[in-house]
Amino acid sequence: MAAVFLVMLYEYSPLFYIVVVFTCFVVTTGLVLGWFGWDVPVILRNSEETQVSTRVFKKQMRQVKNPFGLEITNPSSASITTGITLTTDCLEDSLLTCYWGCSVQKLYDALQKHVYCFRISTPQALEDALYSEYLYQEQYFIKKDSKEEIYCRLPRDNKIEDFGTVPTSRYPLVALLTLADEDDREIYDIISVVSVIHIPDRTYKLSCRILYQYLLLAQGQFHDLKQLFMSANNNFTPSNCSSSEEKITGRSLLEKVRLSKSEVEPSENSKDCVVCQNGTVNWVLLPCRHTCLCDGCMKYFQQCPICRQFLQESFALCSQKEQDKDKLKTL
């Protein structure tokens, strides 16, 4: 039927030629103008071109010095029955307090109390906020600038083998790092770090790892410390760098973002931009947290070159002034 109608238009109506020529002219004009960047109706553009024009906001960072460091030693050997070994690296004398079987709900209530009620700057403050909703507590004194291995475990007479089926109401271990000297709490913005650690048990055999780390600030905020996805062989060690939420200074880049070499994917040209393979990686892309672009290539991308996710925000690990200082030091 449609073919018959077109044949009738072709034979009897000169308007058919006019409509066809006019349609071709409109479509061709729209494509040409769109190619040269002119503003044309959205219907003539695909969704990818529309998304590319979205502005990527640069996140404003605040420089904060983190006095605490905590990682798990030999996570494969950790369990509820055998215990766990933690390695601390603190810039000041500190206290490591471990809470076994800490209530999940009470812990997050305690974090909210840090914001609205009182600051959790001491183990006693967290204990008051938890209302003693934990099974066992142990505390250790940590000397400054000494990487100490602390062995933690439940008492031998404790017959706990698991914390119930998933989802559990208790975390296996919550580790709190606080400054031992009250005067040091006036120096640092970060006054304590809460680490939620999973330890495999009889029921839930997920490998041992740090699930969450919260930086508690003296001003009453707390931030969830996130990992950056970057290479473990990165030789880029500027004097001042940042994590995904706070800018941390005074250590190598992996230590500043609290990443161990086993937690990131290695590559051969780790310090090189994944695009030009020449510039030094300096930009973190959000929300995917890939750290893969140099200063020169960053301005050309609205999508992550690794996972192709559209960028919402980004921030630089180091400013241009800090990079210039590093270049002068190497010379």
- The level 1 CATH classification of the domain at 68-156 and 164-227 is Mainly Beta
General shape: elongated
CATH topology of the domain at 68-156 and 164-227: Immunoglobulin-like
What's the rounded overall pLDDT mean? 78
Number of strands: 15
CATH architecture type of the domain at 68-156 and 164-227: Sandwich
Distance between the termini: 81 Å
Largest sheet, if any? 6 strands, antiparallel
Alpha plus pi helix count = 8
What is the spatial order of strands in the main beta sheet?
5-4-7-8-9-10
Binned strand content: 15-25%
| Gyration radius, rounded | 28 Å
In short:
By secondary structure, the chain is α+β, with helices and mostly antiparallel strands. The chain has helices at 2-12, 15-35, 47-52, 104-116, 123-130, 253-256, 295-298, 320-330, and strands spanning 57-58, 70-73, 84-88, 94-103, 136-142, 148-152, 170-179, 190-198, 209-217, 222-224, 240-242, 247-249, 283-286, 291-293, 313-316.
Structure characterization notes:
The protein has 331 residues and is of the alpha+beta class. Helices cover 24% and strands 24% of the residues. Among the domains are: 68-156 and 164-227, Immunoglobulin-like (Sandwich), CATH 2.60.40; 270-325, Herpes Virus-1. The strands form 4 sheets. Strands 5-4-7-8-9-10 form a 6-stranded antiparallel β-sheet, covered by helices on one side. The protein has a 4-stranded mixed β-sheet with strand order 1-15-13-14. Strand 11 (240-242) and strand 12 form a beta hairpin. The longest helix has 21 residues, at 15-35. It is elongated, with a radius of gyration of 28 Å.
